[in-house]
Specification:
The protein has 225 residues and is of the alpha/beta class. Helix content is 50%, strand content 11%. It contains twelve helices and seven strands.
Length: 225
């Protein structure tokens, strides 16, 4: 299979579809309504606790702008939130290119939505392993899988998607969207992608460092049966 080389993109991409799945919900109470004020037709897709928080924030408007990811994909979340965002429709929407006819055909075939922004941050692994006496099993349970995949996919496709991992960037994003009729520039999308990849790299490095510091005896002690 030959590698696709993109030669045409849009500098400004209007934000119409947003996916949110965050552990840190700080700043959403201002950010989400601001998105809707800029573009009253914006559609929000979310998971679990993030969905509940956004629904609370948006009030009556949630009925027309907010969709639970499980309703979008047709796949319910698994027990304990084990699988929420690992779905073909989601990644098709994150990775498709605007000026790629086969990609657009795939969107139509599957009913997938092209996501223009992803708001994602991860389970607090550093906080978990900083606790006194934390076990390997407790740490393992706080390793986020879907979140890093979602962030990396959106950051890879900075050609079209804004990957937002830091609530500190919310004000910058809103200011740019206000100045550009609801659109985000390639320059900002690229800066957000840089931050997103640094974020997931640090996350993985922390996991590797913790596991590397533990012996197999530490692992066996978690599962005495």
């Amino acid at each position: 299979m030959s590698m696709n080389v993109v030669e045409k993109i849009d500098d400004l991409v209007k934000v119409r579809n947003v996916m949110a799945s965050v552990f840190d919900k700080g700043g959403l109470d201002e950010f989400m309504p601001a998105l809707l004020r800029i573009n009253p037709e914006i559609k929000l897709y979310s998971t679990g606790g993030t969905f509940g928080r956004i629904k609370e924030i948006m009030g009556e408007a949630a009925a027309t702008c907010l969709t639970q990811i499980s309703d979008y994909t047709g796949q319910p979340e698994t027990q304990g939130g084990l699988v929420k965002t690992l779905d073909f429709k989601i990644y098709l929407g994150l990775l498709t290119e605007t000026y790629n006819d086969p990609h657009q055909d795939d969107l139509k075939r599957t009913g997938a939505v092209p996501m223009d922004m992803v708001i994602g941050n991860l389970y607090p692994f550093k906080e978990t392993i900083s606790k006194e006496g934390v076990t390997v099993e407790e740490a393992r349970g706080n390793i986020d899988i879907g979140g890093p995949c979602m962030i990396r996919a959106s950051a890879k496709n900075y050609l079209r998607v804004a990957s937002v991992v830091d609530p500190a960037d919310y004000d910058t994003i809103i200011a740019e969207m206000k100045a550009n009729n609801g659109a985000i520039s390639l320059g900002l999308r690229y800066r957000l992608a840089q931050k997103a990849f640094a974020y997931t790299a640090d996350y993985d490095s922390t996991i590797a460092g913790f596991l590397g510091s533990k012996s197999f005896d530490d692992v066996k002690a978690c599962y005495p049966g």
